[in-house]
Design goal:
single chain, mainly alpha, two-stranded antiparallel ribbon, 7 helices, rod-shaped
């Protein structure tokens, strides 16, 4: 987002440089005719120098940011990252939409819920170890004749039985009691952690959503300011060309237009940044 902002600001500065150079060309032609003072040209050349310095600073900032991204992504040093120049249209969803998405998809909340489920299973397993062991036994046995003696005995016998057994280790009352208390405490702590994580995420979503809504207003406001600043610049330039305005008025109008253009770019990037913050916290990027 920073790289995109720098590149957009660079485009704004380039357009203002072109505009300033055209104004200087007109002023030099007027100076030849004796209608513009040399001092006026010098002051506007200073304005041009300031814009050129701003352009250099932005190019350096782009170079630094590009190098940091290339290094982080382990790409070739000569790689140039070109972000999208167009601001993507985004829709202003209701806050409930983002809250619902965060409660279902947020990775940190899912991790906390998984830990809570594991602790609950561990608690149930430890508690189950305190219960007695019950066994049910059933058997059916058919015995044939006894032929291992000198005189065989006809002893066909069918024997069956059903039994139930209960086993309980009395030492569990002392040895397992500590484990049960620990498991119950861990389960309760994990449940509180889930509640705390849910609360934090709800607060974060609400704050990001408010900032997102504010960004829409900011963009529309800055867009209107750009329109008014452009109109003011055109009127001031026309008045200056006709000798009805001072050079200071022209410089002020030029600076106002540049400032409005810059603020619009920043507002647009800020809108996208807050949008992606909502996408990030809801784990829907």
């Amino acid at each position: 987002m920073e790289l995109c902002k720098f590149k957009n600001q660079l485009e704004v500065v380039k357009k203002n440089l072109e505009l300033t150079e055209r104004v200087l060309a007109t002023m030099r032609a007027s100076h030849v005719q004796g209608t513009v003072l040399k001092n006026d040209i010098t002051r506007y050349e200073l304005q041009l120098q300031s814009l050129q310095l701003n352009e250099t600073q932005l190019r350096d900032a782009i170079s630094i940011m590009n190098h940091q991204l290339v290094t982080t992504l382990h790409l070739d040093d000569n790689t140039e990252i070109v972000p999208k120049q167009m601001i993507s249209p985004v829709e202003s969803q209701q806050q409930e939409h983002w809250q619902d998405a965060a409660s279902k998809q947020n990775i940190m909340l899912q991790q906390a819920q998984l830990v809570s489920e594991i602790r609950e299973s561990e608690k149930k397993a430890v508690q189950a170890s305190l219960l007695p062991t019950i066994a049910i036994v059933a058997e059916d046995h058919l015995g044939g004749p006894y032929v291992n003696d000198f005189i065989p005995v006809d002893a066909n016998v069918n024997a069956w039985f059903v039994g139930i057994g209960i086993k309980y280790n009395l030492s569990n009352l002392w040895h397992k009691n500590h484990d049960v208390k620990k498991a119950i405490l861990n389960s309760r702590q994990s449940e509180e952690h889930v509640a705390l994580a849910s609360e934090r995420i709800k607060n974060a979503v609400q704050a990001d959503f408010v900032n997102f809504q504010t960004s829409f207003v900011e963009v529309e406001t800055q867009r209107k300011q750009v329109e008014l600043a452009t109109q003011h610049y055109e009127v001031t330039q026309n008045r200056y060309n006709n000798g009805l305005a001072l050079l200071t008025d022209m410089l002020d109008a030029s600076n106002m237009k540049l400032s409005a253009d810059m603020m619009l770019v920043n507002a647009q990037i800020n809108l996208m940044y807050n949008y992606y913050k909502l996408k990030y916290i809801t784990s829907s990027l």
